[in-house]
Amino acid sequence: MTSASSFQMLRGSVIIFTGLLSVAFLGRKLELSQWLGILVTIVGLVVVGLADLHSSHDQKHKLSEVITGDLLIVMAQVIVAIQMVLEEKFVYKHDVHPLRAVGTEGFFGFIILALLLVPMYYIPAGSFSGNPRRTLEDALDAFCQIGHRPLIALALLGNISSIAFFNFAGISVTKEISATTRMVLDSLRTLVIWAVSLAVGWETFHGLEILGFGVLLVGAALYNGLHR
């Protein structure tokens, strides 16, 4: 419903929710510069959102789809922020090894999602669906596609490996430094994804996106105390 670069930029909103939840559940006190960083991040998100709305006129996505997609991304960051704060709380409190934390999350995540695939096979999703049956998920169709195109299996294995190392590195950063630092480092890959998207022609260039991304980086820098 939106572009890859906008998705990455809007993920920057996780700093806002991670900061607020850190105050509420970890008892952390935010400095003035961190509150300012949160405000600047909000401004950056608004600019990126406006760039998205502007680009919807000359791309395949309708205005309603862009708005829905962007809102879903921001809502998802609340869930991600809760996960980050809980991870920080548990790895500090129980001194959990990062690999054990990632393995436990992966194990339960696999079981829960495998069970959810059953009802998702029957739930109609309309325009949200990406399969011929127009349901939320079609696992049988997915296996059929993998059978016909083995390259998909290779891409899936690459994705699994990438996420495994990414999560291990992320939890290691959370344990050694903090959840917020992890989020700041995570947001830096946005630039790479945006550059690749432009290079291969997946999206068109918009000046507002540069401004929005710049403001988001300033917000992240302020929050993390880089101005010092």
TrEMBL record:
Family: Belongs to the SLC35F solute transporter family.
UniProt cross-references to Pfam families, sorted A to Z: SLC35F (PF06027)
Membrane topology classification: Multi-pass membrane protein
Name under which the protein is recorded: Solute carrier family 35 member F6
SUPFAM superfamilies: Multidrug resistance efflux transporter EmrE
Keywords, comma-separated and alphabetical: Membrane, Transmembrane, Transmembrane helix, Transport
Taxonomic superkingdom: Eukaryota
Organism the protein comes from: Buteo japonicus
Major localization listed first in the record, in broad terms: membrane
Keyword Chloroplast: no
Subcellular location: Membrane
TM ranges: 9-26, 32-51, 63-86, 106-124, 151-171, 191-223
InterPro entries noted in UniProt: EmrE-like, SLC35_F1/F2/F6
Any one Gene Ontology cellular component term annotated for this protein: membrane
GO MF annotation terms: transmembrane transporter activity
